[in-house]
Amino acid sequence: MNAAILDLTRKVAVVTGATGGMGQVITADLVRAGAHVITVARDPARVDALRASIGPEVANRLDVIEGDLSRRADVVTAARTIVDRYDRIHILINNAGAHFSEHRVSADGVEMHVALDYLAAYGLTTLLAVPLRRGRARVVNVASDTLNDTRQIKLAGKPRPATLDLAGIDDLAELNPAAGFAPFEAYARAKLMTVTAGYALARDLAADGVTVNALHPGIVATGIIDDLVPPLLRPMRTLIRRSLLTPTEGAKSATRIATDPIMAGITGRYFIRDTESTTPPVSHDPTTQQRLLALSQIHFAG
């Protein structure tokens, strides 16, 4: 267990993406520190592997809700189930995410990066607002610094930040269309959306002691990395992975923000590992933030 995590006995945490590499580490660390952890998962086999990695002596503190976080109905159902079972939530780590090399849409007609990398986190944060407020929770959104530079090969030139133009957008299904689809930029835009909404939600939830921060955990050797490696460099993929952070190293920053007393009261920030950093100007634009929240609310009201 990460030595920095304090005793979390009687604390309730929600972790998404818990069956993935970094998510498994985060979940195991929180459970072993005494927390009761809830996750939403769609693959029973991967849940069995998660329970095995945690160990039988503490696996009873893991509550698994079946669901696909790319589906609006499953996000809503999972949130209702959590609200029914738990009065307070003290930690929410929105870690679920994926990179899709081809254009795909969710069951709701939303491009998959927007559905899974953004709307799942937004939906859980807002639908769980009551128990989060009661628990004076810490919300951690796992993002990616691709939002600051969408170039896959950064050998020369200036960074190319992700863009988020919501003018004339009436439905989030209009974002990342099939025409001109660029997977890496679509992924970065979804992460930018998570950070942009997070800044606004941080202000809204602050009065009740809830903090909302975003994190780029570093470049971690997970399944997403295999998809993000440009074709030119794929013959070197094994060598590249050896130079990256391990899931355990990547998880440390997320658990630190979620548990370290030093982070108490700090909200509305973006971190690259343990260092506070900046995000594109559009993410701080009040008009963009409010339009994004309005479109997201419409999605979950539909």
Sheet with most strands: strand arrangement: 3-2-1-4-5-6-7-8
From the 3D structure, determine the CATH topology.
Answer: Rossmann fold
Shape, per Cα inertia axes: globular
N-to-C series of helices and strands = EHEHEHEHHEHEHHHEEH
* Radius of gyration from the alpha-carbon trace, in angstroms: 18 Å
By CATH, the architecture is named: 3-Layer(aba) Sandwich
| Main sheet overview | 8 strands, mixed
Ends distance: 42 Å
* Helix and strand composition category: alpha/beta
Strand content: 5-15%
Number of helices: 10
The first-level CATH class name: Alpha Beta
Low-pLDDT segments, ≥5 res: 239-243
Mean pLDDT: 90
Bin the helical content: 40-55%
Number of strands: 8
Total discrete domains:
1
CATH homologous superfamily designation: NAD(P)-binding Rossmann-like Domain
